[in-house]
Amino acid sequence: MTDSLPQPEFNPAKPNGGNPDVENVNLQYQGLEFHYIYLMLMSFLVWLIIPGIGILYSGLARRKSALALLFQSLAVMGVVCFQWMFWGYSLAYSRTAGPFIGNMDNFGLKNVMSAPSPGSAFLPEIVFCLYQMLFCAVTVQLVIGGSFERGRILPSMIFAFCWATIVYCPIACWTWNANGWLFNLPSLDFAGGGPVHIASGWSALAYALVLGKRLPKGDAIHGKAHNPTLVFIGTVFIWFGWFGFNGGSALNGTMRSMLAAFNTNTAASFGVLGWTLVDYVRTKGHFSVVGACSGAIAGLVGITPAAGFVSPWLAALIGFLTGAICALCGSIDKLLRIDEGMDVFKLHGIGGMVGSFLTGLFAQSWLYDLDGMGPYDGLGAMDGVGVQVGRQLAEIVAISAYSFGVSCVLLYGLKFLPGMHLRVSEEVEMVGLDRDQFLDEQIGDWSLVQMVQGGTSITPAQQSNPPKPSTIMTQHGTRQYSSVLRTQRITTERSSSRIKQRS
User: Fold this and answer.
1) pLDDT tens digits in sequence order for the chain, 503 residues long
2) What gap in Å lies between CA 466 and CA 237, rounded to an integer?
3) Which Pfam families match (predicted)?
4) How many CB atoms lie within 10 A of CB 430?
């Protein structure tokens, strides 16, 4: 089974696809334009995941540090875009890469333009490069979630560049480059169960481990989302963007891509059911918006490696099981004694491992054949290839160990580098990252964290020019600071009560 139109072929004599001054470089794709147009649309959808994660994270964090997470969603995009154009794409996808990492053949995007891409002959390489860059950006932003509420922004951006280079790019090369060792094992990873989710989950755990627990340690409020509405909106952006994340990973516009998109929605929907069921039983009849959102994300994570390999009902099973299993791991932070409050490890690390394992069980070649370029050999245990489960376990172990170990080494190296302070001071952490790291921007009403001196109300001058966090903490101390918050809250409640009585 082949397309009626001939596939474009890479010509080593024209590594950039040809000279547009003397030839029409579009002719090689004539009649096949819908493939790269489809992938461009999928790229635009994937981009929405980036602000979606920022909104989700800011809703999960406490208000005093929510702005930092919104900012980092854009900052990560800037850093990764530079890294990818500089050498990231070449390290992951150069055609002459080794089994573990690429080379500098495409350094600075050299020759990355109109030639058929290494991922699919239907795509100009510049389209493939953009699509894969957004995968890298999404993954790095997930990792940054391990630093929330106590990680300084500038060091996190330096870490983002380094992590994309020495963790993400090698793992992407292993998994998706035709020369990669996992690609040739082969392990099955349709859209990033390993390079995106397992790697980000374990790396975020490493980030949280190196930074240490938030202050005050063990405070119950650490587990409370400050704004479930933002969590919901962020999840909607992520769910919508995931149609591009999975729906484009066949790298063509065939029926297999349509199946992957359908499976994406199915798994997310059943992930909501799996998580909600566990919550309902555990809380004896109560529901949670944040829990439902977590279930949707768990379902999306679980189906990522399997989206183009399984039928819709198997996608539903994968989504439900991943949502339920991740929900049952609710106490994993306490078990590990690591304060990873964004649940990146629980949702992406554990969810990615579950999804990868289930892919080895349920993958079937007849669904792979939907791209019209088969027939292919059997894939998973349901096709009689039981050894595929072992291959998936090899992928899980290798990516988990590499991402966690290398991330720890990188973070400890940055931590002890002179002048590179990964974590904010205790006084800044108590007041919040937003007051310390940003200019005059804020979320909500900051009057509750401004000091009352001598038991009097805050003057207009004090409101317009509030004291710095260091001034607050050194003059009054943490205990006095907490007392002020209580005083302000009581004053606000009494004022509201008097207004109601008058009306």
Assistant:
1) 445 678 899 999 999 999 999 999 999 999 999 999 999 999 999 999 999 999 999 999 888 888 888 999 999 999 999 999 999 999 999 999 999 999 999 999 999 999 999 999 999 999 999 999 999 999 999 999 998 888 999 999 999 999 999 999 999 999 999 999 999 999 999 999 999 999 999 999 999 999 998 887 656 666 678 899 999 999 999 999 999 999 999 999 999 999 999 999 999 999 999 999 999 999 999 999 999 999 999 999 999 999 999 999 999 999 999 999 999 998 888 899 898 888 999 999 999 999 999 999 999 999 999 998 878 889 999 999 999 999 999 999 999 999 999 999 999 999 999 888 899 888 888 888 888 888 766 676 545 545 444 444 444 444 445 455 444 444 434 444 444 445 445 444 544 454 455 44
2) 35
3) Ammonium_transp
4) 19
Identify the three-state secondary structure at position 98. coil
Query: Using CA atoms, how far apart are residues 222 and 257, in angstroms rounded to an integer?
Result: 40
In contact, 125 and 115? CB cutoff 8 Å:
yes
Beta strands in 333-458 (DSSP E): none
- Residues in the chain, how many? 503
Indicate the residue type of 341.
Answer: G
CATH architecture of 27-215+223-437: Orthogonal Bundle (1.10)
Element housing 122 (H / E): none
**Cα angle at 406 between 410 and 90, to 5 degrees?**
90
Closest alpha carbon to 264 in 251, 249, 276, 278:
249
DSSP 140-192: HHHHHGGGTTTB-HHHHHHHHHHHIIIIIHHHHHHHHSTT-HHHHTT---SS-
Say if CB 242 and CB 268 are below 8 A apart. Answer: yes
Q: Are 430 and 478 in contact (CB under 8 A)?
A: yes
DSSP string, 432-457: -HHHHHSSS--SS-GGGGS--STTPP
Tokens 């009902």 label which residue?
Answer: 313
Cβ atoms of 144 and 205 within 8 Å: the answer is no
CA distance 315 to 347: 17
For residue 466, give the nearest of 432, 490, 491 by alpha carbon. Answer: 432
